[in-house]
Amino acid sequence: MNAYPLTIRKRRELAYNHHTNDPVSEMEARSDNHLEIAKASYRDLIIQAEENVYREGLLKTPHRAVKAWDFLTSGYSSDPAEILRAAVFEEDFDNMVLVKDIKFYSLCEHHLLPFFGKVHVAYIPAGRIVGLSKIPRAVDALARRLQVQERLTKEIADVIEETLHPSGVAVAAEAFHMCMMMRGVEKQNSTTATTYFTGSFDSDPKVQERFFNSLRGSVR
């Protein structure tokens, strides 16, 4: 979520919730200072590339880059568990629920380069289900952070486990990593696959096989 400029609603919240002489001005000053520090960092990177930060094409690049960074890391201001809890319903259904081919984009925490792909999420309800659109939203909240694919896969499973308490959760992710494609080994067509299982998906091979059978034909 972009922290600047402050919205009218946010200004009102700050004025109501804080009992200082001028909380809005104080908060704006901190936000403006953060913006300028971030812009200066991007300017330094451009200068290190031996480019002219004052030429037309680059003049507003630091500001645009900060806005892009805020969006790409906006997951830190979202609570995936809260997203799921907003649409939990009691339901007598105990078969597998599978949401396939959820596209995601994230940033590798090692090189700050993108990795992107799709994730498949399944769970077996134990009396409670969740609105289907909330699962992709929770994935986005976790992906829009500095991540590694292994942790992202586990965190998706963990938040569903902790929120719904199902009989089991299965998550499979596959992604292209720009840190392997643009630099380093420069392997253009390699993908990375990760899985994480809890409950019956972990303990029962037949349940796990059902999950993989359901994915066949969609995984490329």
Write a structural description.
This protein is of the alpha+beta class and 220 residues long. The chain folds into 2 domains: 65 residues, GTP Cyclohydrolase I, Chain A, domain 1, CATH 1.10.286; 139 residues, GTP Cyclohydrolase I, domain 2, CATH 3.30.1130. 45% of the residues lie in helices and 22% in strands. The chain is built from 9 helices and 7 strands; from the N terminus they run ααααββββαβαβαβαα. The strands form 2 sheets. It has a 5-stranded mixed β-sheet, with helices on both faces. β2 and β3 form a beta hairpin. α2 crosses α3 and α5 crosses α6. The longest helix is centred in the N-terminal third of the chain and has 26 residues. The chain is elongated and about 65 Å long. The two termini are 33 Å apart.
Content-based structural category: alpha+beta
Low-confidence regions = 1-20
Helix-strand pattern: HHHHEEEEHEHEHEHH
Number of helical stretches of at least 4 residues:
9
As for the number of domains, it is 2
Q: What is the tally of beta strands?
A: 7
The general outline is elongated
Q: Report strand order across the widest sheet.
A: 5-2-3-6-7
Main sheet? 5 strands, mixed
Might you state the CATH topology name of the largest domain?
Answer: GTP Cyclohydrolase I, domain 2
Approximately what portion of the residues adopt beta-strand conformation? Answer: 15-25%
Helix content: 40-55%
The CATH H-level homologous superfamily of the largest domain = GTP cyclohydrolase I, C-terminal domain/NADPH-dependent 7-cyano-7-deazaguanine reductase, N-terminal domain
C-alpha end-to-end distance = 33 Å
Radius of gyration: 21 Å
CATH 2nd-level architecture of the largest domain: 2-Layer Sandwich
Residue-averaged pLDDT, rounded? 88
Briefly, what CATH class of the largest domain?
A: Alpha Beta
